[in-house]
Write a structure and sequence with these properties.
With 368 residues, this protein is an alpha+beta fold. The chain has 17 helices and seven strands. A hairpin with a 2-residue loop joins β1 (150-153) and β2 (156-160). It starts with 14 loop residues before the first helix and ends in a 7-residue tail after the last strand.
């Protein structure tokens, strides 16, 4: 949930809870599919549970917020795989099948689709869980109904035709949760500010200044780690990181001699966030320049203005017809794609990427 708790005070749940919830839903899916005579051995059932239990283990502090800043071009999915491989070595190959399922290398493709797909157990858990803890009831989906309607045809995950309205609710819930919760303007303002702070910490290291921080966080802030480096020492340091490393850093950095780092850290701690405007079309450069002009009374470099005034875009897509297709098992036994089973899902509105543009800037010009 990143920094969503600044908007939704109840949203303090963790990925540990989400991982357990995902494993519970996997147990339910296995029960339903076995009842429908889908062949799943005890070893496969165990491996399916392990795969979803570990699928998000590569996330770092504050979830997606710090992913690119800490680990660079390596994704949390790749980090998850590194960790799973390390565990597998220690467990002498006990995760072989789980890793094959996670990476979609196992011959029964439906097992991977239960973890990674447009309607998967991962999303089923986080939508219902995040809806509950945030209080945003739009995300409250009927996961039990969707799981009960699961089927496997030619090793592909499908859903019985009578489940179509539950699928519609699922897709719309995900769309609304993104705009209302995950991409809430106050949440993303705080997350952008945290990213800027970490970038400034790295800037300090590059300029011979060493802000006080934990050894694990210092490992990533003092150097750029590439994909080929992410093993051994890098992985051990990454596993040592959690939200508290960042929080303790912020509490220390607010008193740092670097004005930019100090000011941004204090802003986040005191919830004096950057104001954010969101609209459906790009901001005129003159409007951005006007916000920057207000900062010119301060003695920091012009290149530092971008820490307080910046623009960009966010996007959301309800349904991706050509990506990990949702298959429907018709009453006559035939298999078809969701958009062919119901004209509603052929709508351009559903498949179109919705883009919104943001402009962040200080609420006032008093940065002293």
């Amino acid at each position: 949930m990143g920094l969503s708790s600044l908007v939704y005070p109840g949203a303090h749940h963790t990925r540990f809870e989400h991982a357990l919830g995902g494993m519970h839903l996997m147990q339910e899916a296995i029960r339903v599919l076995k009842k429908k005579e889908v062949s799943i051995s005890d070893k496969e059932a165990e491996s399916m549970q392990l795969a979803i239990l570990l699928h998000d283990i590569g996330h770092g502090p504050f979830s997606h917020t710090t992913e690119a800043t800490l680990a660079g071009i390596i994704s949390h999915e790749e980090i998850s795989l590194h960790i799973m491989n390390k565990l597998n070595e220690e467990l002498k190959g006990a995760l072989d099948v789980a890793i094959a399922i996670f990476t979609n290398q196992y011959h029964k493709k439906f097992m991977h689709q239960l973890i990674v797909g447009q309607i998967d157990l991962d999303r089923m858990d986080y939508l219902k869980r995040d809806s509950f803890y945030s209080g945003a009831t739009e995300g409250n989906i009927n996961s039990k109904r969707i799981i009960e309607m699961m089927a496997v045809v030619d090793d592909q995950l499908a859903f019985e035709e009578k489940c179509i309205y539950s699928i519609e609710k699922f897709l719309m819930a995900r769309r609304l949760m993104y705009w209302q919760v995950y991409l809430h303007k106050t949440s993303i303002s705080a997350e952008f500010l945290l990213v800027k702070i970490l970038q400034r910490v790295r800037h300090c290291f590059e300029n011979g200044i060493s802000p006080s921080l934990s050894p694990a966080l210092g490992f990533f802030m003092s150097q750029k780690i590439g994909k080929s480096d992410f093993s051994g020492e890098a992985l051990e340091n990454f596993l040592s990181l959690d939200d508290s490393d960042i929080i303790q850093g912020l509490k220390t950095w607010q008193y740092h001699d670097d004005f930019i780092l100090s000011k941004m850290s204090k802003m986040l701690i005191e919830r004096n966030l950057l104001k954010i405007k969101i609209q459906t079309y790009p901001f005129d450069p003159s409007e951005v320049d006007l916000k920057i002009e207000l900062l010119k009374n301060y003695s920091f470099k012009e290149s530092d203005y971008q820490n307080f005034v910046f623009t960009g875009s966010i996007s959301n897509q309800t349904y991706v017809p050509l990506d990990k297709e949702i298959l429907i098992l018709l009453k006559n036994g035939k298999l078809t794609r969701l958009q062919e089973a119901n004209p509603f899902f052929s709508s351009n509105e559903l498949s179109q990427i919705q883009v919104k543009y943001y402009l962040c800037y200080p609420r006032n010009t008093n940065l002293s």
